[in-house]
Each structure stands twice: as structure tokens, then as C-alpha cells.
UniProtKB/TrEMBL annotation:
Protein name, per record: Heat-inducible transcription repressor HrcA
Originating organism: Tateyamaria omphalii
Function: Negative regulator of class I heat shock genes (grpE-dnaK-dnaJ and groELS operons). Prevents heat-shock induction of these operons.
UniProt record similarity statement: Belongs to the HrcA family.
Pfam families assigned: HrcA
Coiled-coil residues: none
Gene Ontology terms describing biological process: negative regulation of DNA-templated transcription
Single annotated GO MF: DNA binding
PANTHER family in the cross-refs: HEAT-INDUCIBLE TRANSCRIPTION REPRESSOR HRCA
Domain Heat-inducible transcription repressor HrcA C-terminal intervals: 115-336
UniProt xrefs under InterPro entries: GAF-like_dom_sf, HrcA, HrcA_C, WH-like_DNA-bd_sf, WH_DNA-bd_sf, WHTH_transcript_rep_HrcA_IDD
Domain of life assignment: Bacteria
Keywords for the protein's UniProt record, in alphabetical order: Repressor, Stress response, Transcription, Transcription regulation
Keyword Coiled coil (UniProt): no
Length: 356
């Protein structure tokens, strides 16, 4: 039995209604909700004293908190999690919201990055939060690659794809590399790589390294493994993270400490730290996931919530993700269906383009 279900089972109908109304009132206004407010539109005739007793019980359960000496309560992170998992009612996006997202996909341009950039801007505008879009890595066949030494602790891999696309990626080579060992590693890879995608190369490289371990010296072998790491998301990842709507979070925060935390969050994002981890957050399922506060170590410093959903290709393989960051006081019932709708739309759009 999950923690949410256990807590819900411990609550009677009155406790659940008090809890739900406190959370919904807080999400709507951002202010603590008091017992007198609840008595005005409660489903049954109860006194403010009775509701205060229920709120005290909910506080003892760790679901509500008193930020001030007043009688008003706000949900704790545990309370928000229980509300999202057990009581949240999610509908469909409003027609106007759908139209704004749909409008970004009307262009016939071939630049997927530019299109997803517009999707991120639209998602930020619709939700009034900060949007995140993780674009898919390039999966065209590779024509050629080269390793270029830049110094004792840095090197460049140049990837030339069959469709003319060129990517330059920095990575840290193993100690002791020489121009000769880099050329040997590049020759080794080019002999097997042409006409294959990066995903295919990963499998082939692992097999070839095992089969031909004695055919290349140890330094070149180490470089091959280092290059593999840089292509599969463990180093300088090929995915690109688009962040839009930073000002929305800054505008919604009045506390200096909160502003500093949010700036720190976006500094991390703009340096592209933990991009692969962002995608990993979506790997456990194909639906929308919600991370509240410290549940998500990627964004916990900001005290924010993340609503994120993967998008998939025609083979139902996760190739990217879209999400919204906002305060923990998000309108989850509205944001969740918008993120879900956007992710499905992006997946269909990319599939349609690949089939043309």
C-alpha cells in the first residue's frame, strides 16, 4: 500500500474534505486557509472549532503546517504529494490553451530545434511558468568522425552525418593520450561506423571492443570508451535543453532568498548540467510525472515543482521531454493536461516529419 493510500484510508470524509479545501484554497491564493473560511461553504454544517480540530489532526499527520501564529494552514510537501496522487482532478486542456500550443506546430520548416523552441515559448506563455524542452539527439547515419586533441585534458570529436549535419563535442580524454593514439582510435571507429546511427554504433562498439581488445593499444582502447561515454549521455550530452519563461518565475518570487535559489537553478540549466538526468526522470513511465520540491534533486534548490512528460517516436521510444517548472503552488489540475497534450503533440509532429 502506498503512503498516499495509507493516509487517505486513515482519514474520514470530513477530514478529506477539509484537507482538499485547504490545499485548493492555498493553490488558488497562495495564502494560509483558516477555519472560518472553510465554514462558509463547507458541505455540512460544522463549527469553526470543529474544523480547527480537524486541521490540527491533519497537521499532526504531517499534511498541513502553520506558517504563522494565525489559525491558517498551508499544505506541506507531503500534503501536496498526497493531494496530487490521491485527490487531484485532471481534465483536458482549455480550447484556448490547445490553440496556442497548436499554433507553434503550423510551420513547415525543417529545423526541429527552432520549432521546439517555439513550443517552449508557447508552453511558458500558456502556463506562466518556465518551460523546459529537451530536444532529441541527432539520429542520422554517420559518415565520418575525427578526434582532435586540444590539450592534455580536453579533446574534440567531430561527427559528420550522412545528411550533412556536423557536430563538434568536447570531452575529457583519458590521461596520456597522444595524437597517434587518437588517430588510431578514429581509424578503428571509422572502419565500422559509416552508415550507422549513434545508437547502433554504441552496441557495435561495445561488441567490437570486447572482440578486438588485443588489436588496439590500451590508450586507444581507453579513448574509444571515453568517446562512447560522450555520445550516450554520460559526458557532454548531445541533447539540447531549451529553457523559456525564466522571467515568469522571477516575477512570481518576492523573497530575496527565493530569487537567489531560482537564479542558481537557471544558471545550472543554462550550463546544461544534468540534462541526461532530466530525461531519466521520465523513463519510468510514459505519462506525466510530478516532482514536488526536494523530491527532485535536479530542481530542489529552487523550492519548485516540476511537471514533466516524455515524448516518443513511432517506435514508442522516448526521445525527449517537455516540462514546466513553477512554484510548489502550481495549478496542477491545469498544468498536468497541458504538459501531457504538448508532449503527445510533439511526438506526433516529429513522427510525421520523419515519415515524409
Amino acid at each position: 500500500m502506498t503512503d498516499t493510500q495509507k493516509l487517505l484510508d486513515e482519514m474520514n470524509d470530513r477530514s478529506r474534505e477539509v484537507f482538499r479545501r485547504v490545499v485548493e484554497g492555498y493553490l488558488d491564493s497562495g495564502d494560509p486557509v483558516g477555519s472560518r473560511t472553510l465554514t462558509r461553504d463547507f458541505s455540512e454544517k460544522v463549527s469553526a472549532a470543529t474544523i480547527r480540530n480537524v486541521m490540527q489532526d491533519l497537521e499532526f499527520m504531517g499534511l498541513l503546517d502553520s506558517p504563522h501564529v494565525s489559525a491558517g494552514r498551508i499544505p506541506t510537501q507531503r500534503g501536496l504529494r498526497m493531494f496530487v496522487d490521491g485527490l487531484l482532478e485532471v481534465g483536458v486542456p482549455d480550447e484556448s490553451d490547445r490553440e496556442k500550443i497548436d499554433a507553434t506546430l503550423g510551420s513547415n520548416e525543417r529545423d526541429v530545434g527552432g520549432l521546439l523552441d517555439r513550443v517552449g515559448s508557447a508552453l511558458s506563455g500558456v502556463t506562466q511558468g518556465a518551460s523546459l524542452v529537451l530536444t532529441p539527439k541527432h539520429e542520422a547515419a554517420i559518415k565520418h568522425l575525427d578526434f582532435v586533441p586540444l590539450g592534455p585534458q580536453q579533446a574534440l570529436v567531430v561527427l559528420v552525418f550522412a545528411d550533412g549535419h556536423v557536430e563538434n563535442r568536447l570531452f575529457q580524454p583519458p590521461p596520456g593520450q597522444t595524437p597517434s593514439s587518437m588517430r588510431e582510435a578514429a581509424n578503428f571507429l571509422n572502419a565500422m561506423i559509416e552508415g550507422r546511427t549513434l545508437s547502433e554504433v554504441k552496441t557495435i562498439m561495445q561488441r567490437e571492443i570486447a572482440d578486438r581488445r588485443q588489436e588496439i593499444d590500451s590508450l586507444a582502447h581507453a579513448l574509444v570508451e571515453s568517446g562512447l561515454a560522450s555520445w550516450t549521455g554520460e559526458g557532454d550530452t548531445p541533447e539540447r535543453l531549451i529553457v523559456r519563461g525564466r522571467a515568469n518565475l522571477l516575477d512570481n518570487s518576492s523573497e530575496a532568498e527565493d530569487l537567489d535559489r531560482i537564479r542558481s537553478l537557471f544558471d545550472d540549466l543554462e550550463r546544461k548540467r544534468d540534462i541526461a538526468e532530466f530525461l531519466d526522470l521520465t523513463q519510468d513511465g510514459d505519462g506525466v510525472r510530478i516532482f514536488i520540491g526536494s523530491e527532485n534533486k535536479l530542481f530542489s534548490l529552487s523550492g519548485s515543482s516540476l511537471v514533466v512528460s516524455p515524448y516518443m517516436n513511432a517506435d514508442r521510444k522516448i526521445i525527449g521531454a517537455v516540462g514546466v517548472i513553477g512554484p510548489t503552488r502550481l495549478n496542477y489540475g491545469r498544468i498536468v493536461p497541458i504538459v501531457d497534450y504538448t508532449a503527445q503533440l510533439v511526438g506526433r509532429m516529429l513522427t510525421d516529419r520523419n515519415e515524409r
